[in-house]
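in:
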């Protein structure tokens, strides 16, 4: 059908629709001739005899592959169903649809309402078999053409990427050089910030902690200011997405990667919808070329970082989560020997501050009994003592290393601040030169340039205010200053300024894993500690009985109390316990009242003087009997002249009454004018008795 006379008058009374579409936004911006030729179809419609002509150009920049919503095409279909359209004009079949389903659906609707399809080749009536066959072939050819073009482009890109020559988008810190290829960004400030992220993660083991530490140091990170073209940047406060993007990108490990993400297609409202950017596992990447370019870290460290991030995110078996604080020292470190799962932490008490370790996954998932449950304070204290005992031999070396790390961190922070100040001064100078080069009479331009110059100067002043007043001098530490450091490790561990997170990080630097079990017969928590370096040790911690609280009197103090109670008063027992350094369950010193309270609770019989019958004497009673001082009796006991016994070391001496009649004792007491001491027969006296 090639002439306007063949179109019925009833069809010419309806509207003709000119459908205008281009596949991408770049085509809309650059392919202006193709767009103009599509709009010229309005004249073709009028030449065919249509008076009412309407243009649908809502789908400019939208693909016709069927995976992108096209509101203009949907409006065209709605008008066809309503019988308002007499003809559909398009540049070629590919403008209307690039997939067979949409194309044949459109032809079927045109055939039902007797609408014509018009392109530059002629007029087609979908009601006729020959025209419909020709239109179907055009649609199939268009769909096939799209598949061939896409396959050629993908194969060419994959072939070039397999050699590492495809210039794909690269992350911050890298740039494509014209001759050298992929290399480091020449901006040293950007390089230092990226390296600092890896250093902080190596120290802290958590992406969020890296963010918080860099936020505290007021470190900035670049952000594109040119709509993603990556040619100009604004330095803004760092965000979590910047940290995690740097840690997860393999390009920073010197690896060229292509095809590390995939697209996924789903059916939404009867139409295919594609989504992009879904990451694939490392082993499924299409191209992975190691040592392709200079990296900020090596591949081994990149793999360790990914493993640590996965453990932090999900707490999977096979590794230890990074310490995140809390009140439990061993959170995320304990592994159940019975089922192999990680023990979880719950908090009890009022307020809920007492950690309890338990393995309850079998109970929650399968209704089985819990593997084990035990309190945390005793186990944490026991493991802390083991850590301090292991660290003690290298305490001085560790202190020097910590001092060096602290200085390096301060130097990194100062270096980044200096480079930021240097860049701010350059931008201020550039703004000054631009303002000086402007014509003063052009006030519209000069005012804006002056405003930019003032903003740059304010930024320079703000950065100068952050600079320290004077440089920190290099302090040479004397190793002799750390002589008593090993003795004060316990005090440093329990210092108020030390957070639980710092203790957890120290524990994870020394211990790889702890396998735990409960010996129900002995009521012991058995800890098998796997130290880093391959050593193993076993630690047993007594599990408190039901109703036993943490303020109970220690067994050592109770043993002393039982051995002394029948012979000594509560005052003597309290004094002995205080001399031996055994506090009460609440950490207080002993008094006679407290000793009496513990005896009554524990069922320990009290001291009764009537039971002595004069056979045993105290030092005071012996001194009174002999008529000498307490010091004289103590000297006799120390020299061995007067036999005496002690229930436990530090307890009062007990003296038999009959031992006061021994000859050495009588001779020592009988001497007058000289100290009461025993005469040694092998020693010549300095003074005679005469």
């Amino acid at each position: 059908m090639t002439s306007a006379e063949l179109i019925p008058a009833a069809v010419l009374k309806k509207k003709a629709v000119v459908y205008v579409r281009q596949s991408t936004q770049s085509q809309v911006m650059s392919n202006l001739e193709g767009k103009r030729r599509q709009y010229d179809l309005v004249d073709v419609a009028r030449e065919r005899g249509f008076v009412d002509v309407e243009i649908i150009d809502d789908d400019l920049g939208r693909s016709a592959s069927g995976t992108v919503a096209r509101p203009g095409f949907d409006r065209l279909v709605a008008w066809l169903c309503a019988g308002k359209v007499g003809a559909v004009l398009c540049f070629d079949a590919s403008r209307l649809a690039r997939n067979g389903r949409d194309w044949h659906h459109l032809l079927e609707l045109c055939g039902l309402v007797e609408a014509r399809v018009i392109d530059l080749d002629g007029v087609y009536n979908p009601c006729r078999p020959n025209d419909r066959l020709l239109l179907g072939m055009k649609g199939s050819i268009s769909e096939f053409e799209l598949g061939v073009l896409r396959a050629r482009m993908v194969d060419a890109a994959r072939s070039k990427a397999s050699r590492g020559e495809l210039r794909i988008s690269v992350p911050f810190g890298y740039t494509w050089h014209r001759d050298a290829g992929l290399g480091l960004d020449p901006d040293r400030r950007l390089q230092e910030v990226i390296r600092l992220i890896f250093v902080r993660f190596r120290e802290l083991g958590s992406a969020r902690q890296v963010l918080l530490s860099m936020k505290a140091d007021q470190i900035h990170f670049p952000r594109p200011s040119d709509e993603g073209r990556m040619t100009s940047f604004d330095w803004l406060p760092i965000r979590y997405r910047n940290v995690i993007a740097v840690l997860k990108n393999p390009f920073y490990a010197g690896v060229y990667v292509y095809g590390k993400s995939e697209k996924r297609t789903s059916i939404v409202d009867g139409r295919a919808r594609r989504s992009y950017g879904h990451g694939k596992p490392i082993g499924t990447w299409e191209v992975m070329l190691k040592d392709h370019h200079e990296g900020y870290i090596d591949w081994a460290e990149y793999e360790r970082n990914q493993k640590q991030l996965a453990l932090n995110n999900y707490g999977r078996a096979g590794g230890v989560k990074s310490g995140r604080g809390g009140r439990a020292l061993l959170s995320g470190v304990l592994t159940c020997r019975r089922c192999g799962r990680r023990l979880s932490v719950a908090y009890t008490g009022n307020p809920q501050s007492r950690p309890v370790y338990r393995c309850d996954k079998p109970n929650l998932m399968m209704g089985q009994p819990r593997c084990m449950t035990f309190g945390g304070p005793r186990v944490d204290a026991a493991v802390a003592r083991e850590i301090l005992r292991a660290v003690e031999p290298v305490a001085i070396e560790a202190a020097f290393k910590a001092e060096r790390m602290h200085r390096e961190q301060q130097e990194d922070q100062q270096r980044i601040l200096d480079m930021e100040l240097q860049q701010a001064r350059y931008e201020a100078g550039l703004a000054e030169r631009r303002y000086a080069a402007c014509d003063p009479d052009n006030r519209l331009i000069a005012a804006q340039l002056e405003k930019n110059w003032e903003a740059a100067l304010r930024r320079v002043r703000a950065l100068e205010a952050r600079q320290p007043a004077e440089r920190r001098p290099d302090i040479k530490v004397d190793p002799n200053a750390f002589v008593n450091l090993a003795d004060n490790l316990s005090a440093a561990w329990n210092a108020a300024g030390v957070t639980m997170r710092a203790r957890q990080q120290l524990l994870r630097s020394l211990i790889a894993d702890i396998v735990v079990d409960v010996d129900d017969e002995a009521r012991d928590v058995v800890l098998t500690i796997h130290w880093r370096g391959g050593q193993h040790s076993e630690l047993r911690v007594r599990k408190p009985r039901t109703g036993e609280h943490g303020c109970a009197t220690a067994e050592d103090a109770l043993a002393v109390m039982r051995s002394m109670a029948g012979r000594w008063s509560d005052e003597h027992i309290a004094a002995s316990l205080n001399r031996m350094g055994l506090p009460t369950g609440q950490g207080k010193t002993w008094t006679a009242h407290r000793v009496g309270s513990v005896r009554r609770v524990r069922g320990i019989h009290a001291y009764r003087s009537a039971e002595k019958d004069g056979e045993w004497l105290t030092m005071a009673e012996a001194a009174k009997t002999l008529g000498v001082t307490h010091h004289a009796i103590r000297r006799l006991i120390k020299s061995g002249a007067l036999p005496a016994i002690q229930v436990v070391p530090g307890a009062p001496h007990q003296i038999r009454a009959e031992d006061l009649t021994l000859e050495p004792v009588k001779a020592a007491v009988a001497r007058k004018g000289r100290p009461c001491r025993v005469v040694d027969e092998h020693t010549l006296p300095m003074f005679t008795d005469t």
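note: Confidence is low (pLDDT under 50) at residues 1-5.
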